[in-house]
Amino acid sequence: MKDTTITGLDVGSSAIRAVVCQIFEEGTEKKLQVIGAAEHPAEGVNKGSITSIDDAAASISACLEKAERMSGIPIESAWIGISGIHIVSQACRGIIAVGKVNGEISKSDVERALDSARTIATPPNHEILHVIPRSSIIDGQISTKDPIGMTGSRLEVDALVIQGFAAEIRNFTKCIYRTNLEIEDLVFSILATGEAVLTNKQKELGVVLINIGAATTSMIVYEEGEVLHTAVIPMGSDHITSDIAIGLRISIELAEKIKLEYGELLARETPKKGDINLSEFDAMEEGSVSAKYVHQIIEARVEEIFDKIEHELKRIGRSGILPGGAILTGGGSKLSGIVDIAKKRLKLPVAYATLRNVINVIDRVQDQTFITGMSIANWGLIMHQQRHHGNRSFLSMETTFDIRSRVKKLFKSLLP
Residue 403: its pLDDT value, please? Predict the structure, then answer.
């Protein structure tokens, strides 16, 4: 059963979500069918970082138990998505002399060039999650995306290194192992989502994928089929809730209810007139507030989130010039009218993310909040095919954080 199922685990700041998928073949393609999905409130996690290993492990265990009951199979291992404001990306270049006398470039030459880039890019307190090769230059003249088999004396490889704080990653993996779950590998969540929801045409044209979570907003930019930039912004939908609570001087719980009920006020049209009776949401509350005022609070924070994204696009010179537009996902993207605000602030066409290669027959996961978990499972399928069928190419985005050999033994030795 283990060889025919894949589990994706999304550890978020507000909820832990697990998706169990069955692998099936459709013609020559392998796809996934969701057979189980569960979520559980997250404790001990803040902005993607573990703040309490015991609390986070308990939340993950509870989520896995729900997923096991729903799917009817034991979950022994999973692909784990990781995010957080500590994760950054850096463009780098590795340069090596070609090893063979005849100058033919081999896979080992490419790996040596990537090792060179990895060494240059990694500070002592960081751990690499992914090294994504993007292009190469042979003898300073020939530019290619796949140099293997070509001839030259010097090879330069441009790559994007995605890395995070070593202590954060180790705390994260230790937390997972506390649940007795085997880690297949770690993947930067927004990278996995990009592989699951974006088409090759979108990546070629240029596109930004935006995941608005509870405490953070992740983004990834593609151009000419390559990952150009990633960023994690420390702001999400929980900040909207906090703004409402402060602005109306009410509890967080009541502010969340008002946000969910009146989020549709985020529309291009004039907001509905009238007041919101607080006692409708909480019998202990008295008085009313202006619906227009609530709309203004929500809109101000949503605009700030997209302004931060626009700032990142300006940093890389892609403001308003991504023909593939912006693709939205994540629980925070469900506010009605958010597409209009995104179009206005980013000056790009905007649409919602939809999954590819995943068949979903469970109604409860027909939701943007589960896309990341399903995308992580899809990443597991991609890696499974690369590892077992030998079809890795120069541009394979293999996870380079070797969980099994470098971390597994260390953290299992630390467990009580």
Answer: 42
